[in-house]
Amino acid sequence: MKILVINGPNLNMLGIREPDIYGKKTYADLVDTIEACAKRLGVCVTVFQSNYEGALVEAIQNAYFDNVDGIVINPAAYTHTSVALLDALKAVSIPTVEVHLSDVDNRDEFRKHSFVKAACEKTITGKGFDGYVEAMEYLAAKQ
Ligand code: DQA
């Protein structure tokens, strides 16, 4: 089974950005957590991060041509703005789980709306790195 984990803008700044909200662990720590989870579940994982919306759209499109079985996506700020990411996820029809480190429903009003949610089977918020683990377990259990 192939899982693609996609992380959006500023997630590369984990550990530096707003540690009171996102914690002190770094992006490299997140990648380690995801790779350890993939090993435990016996799945192949690719982790992709970009600060550019178009690069995220292309990663979703490439998932179709690479026969990816499941996508875990934290679109970060593009969650709340991007119809392009929604359309890309709808285009590829790959089972997808939306993940947010923080509890987006209990922060700023503008974070309550997710464009991508309509294309996702499940949304996990406010669980930190564990949210990614839960998302991967959910996708692995579908196989
Ligand atoms: C985030 C929440 C978003 O609102 C924010 O723009 C992010 C990170 C999260 O993981 O909690 O960059 O997606």
Give structural notes:
The chain contains 5 helices and 5 strands. It has 143 residues and is of the alpha/beta class. It has one domain: Dehydroquinase, class II (Rossmann fold, 3-Layer(aba) Sandwich), CATH 3.40.50. A 5-stranded parallel β-sheet has the order 2-1-3-4-5, sandwiched between helices. Strand 3, helix 4 and strand 4 form a beta-alpha-beta unit. The chain is globular, with a radius of gyration of 14 Å. It starts with a strand and ends with a helix. The mean pLDDT is 98. The protein binds 1,3,4-trihydroxy-5-OXO-cyclohexanecarboxylic acid (DQA). The site of 1,3,4-trihydroxy-5-OXO-cyclohexanecarboxylic acid has 10 residues, from loops.
Strands in their spatial order, largest beta sheet: 2-1-3-4-5
For this structure, what is the CATH homologous superfamily? Answer: Dehydroquinase, class II
What is the CA-based Rg, rounded? Answer: 14 Å
What fraction of residues sit in β-strands? 15-25%
What hetero molecules are in the model? 1,3,4-trihydroxy-5-OXO-cyclohexanecarboxylic acid
